[in-house]
Amino acid sequence: MSPLPPEAPPQAPPVDPAHAIDEAGGTVAQHGELASVDTTVFDGVRERAAAILLRYPEPRSALLPLLHLTQHVEGHVSRAGIAFCAEVLGITTAEVSAVATFYTMYKREPVGRHLVSVCTNTLCAALGGDDIYAAVRERLDGIGHEQTAADGSMTIEHAECLAACDLAPVLTVDYEFFDKQTVDSAVEIVDALRRGEKPHPTRGAPLTDFRSVELLLAGFFDDPAVGGLEAVAGPSAAEESLRGARLAEERGWTAPPVPDEGSSS
Ligand code: FES
Questions:
Q1: Is residue 217 in some structural domain?
Q2: Is 104 in the pocket of ligand 1 (CB under 6 A)?
């Protein structure tokens, strides 16, 4: 029997010219879309966007704070926000979308005045986080993950570990911590937010609102618009978190020296 002829390489499907990848890593369709999206809503923050770019040697490195800046303006990352970032950084809308959809801090839908994040990860859940989340939902007429109360006062979300396990169960409002919560204390926080009050976090800065915090996260932490440096001056470390360090100090424990790079030992 004669050997089989080699298999023909698979043929690429025909490419619609509008979807061909261009040198900038996007498609003609995407660039067309970018050109047609109105980004004038961001005109008031163009100077701030330029200031963010100056912090980095490569413009594209400024994408994360720039996305926070768009959330400061609109409360979420909209199509206009994606187009604005792409336009300012000289990258494609596809590249911006890939980053914006990867990180949970970038929201696809408009967030209410506050963002309430209830940790339901293992330790918090075991100590009551699931009950707290259920109680918060019930208090807000049964809204669910990433949904906003009818009065616009807050959006709630399940959160993965908020890095405060020694103070579990925790929730955050606009990323400020409320430690060692109970169902009752969490419901009180929700009620206060609905009344327009700003309960004081257990530690960290006083509450402002989601959009103001987004300006902080864009790196304008000393901006008068968010209260200046006093806004971030609250004590942030809890005694529980420092206990190990204090014990090591008392006992004279130190970390072993880091070996020199390239050392064989
Ligand atoms: S599990 Fe909730 S803060 Fe770590």
A1: no
A2: no
